[in-house]
Specification:
Structural class: alpha+beta
Number of helices: 4
Order of helices and strands: HEEEEEEEEHHH
Protein name: ER membrane protein complex subunit 10
Keywords: Signal
Pfam families: ECM10
Strand order of the largest sheet: 3-2-1-4-5
Helix content: 25-40%
Organism: Candida theae
Length: 186
Amino acid sequence: MISIVKFISWALLISAVSSKRVNLFIRPLDGTESNPIGYIENELVYLMETDLQKEYGYCIGTKDIHHHDCFSYHTNLANLSHAVFHLFLDGDGDVERLSLSFDDKLNEPKVVKHKILVAPGPNLTPASINKPREEQKNGGGGEGIEVPVDNRSWIQKNWMYVVPPLIIFMFAGGGGGGAATAEQGS
């Protein structure tokens, strides 16, 4: 008896998970009450007859898809008989996004499925960057270009940066010792 109950509970759970049903509701913009208008299941739309007033704006939404509480806003809407529901499916076939448009040529609502394609990302490791790094790892930097080694001391290399400030300091008076000796002599 327990195994039958477990089987039935598993069957209900699996059927609930595998069902791709999206419940729809409509809400006037100035109101807070949402009224169910139907659902989308697989490739069919089941809508209830709803009395819509053209002078009001309506928000159509669902709670079955994250961030789709109001996926479509419309004004001057008499009914939903010309509605085209666009379902955007991910790789697993689950509804990722939902949108609504209208086609005056239709007499009943329609579902159009679109696959979401992931755009290619940037190549973060291009070959032009990797080749110089591989050459550096292998020990070869440049082949055939010899750079002479400079064996001079630091003063010999940087004298032009030291001597001009030293000359300016000496002309500016530098120590103050010259004025003191001149007074002693008189």
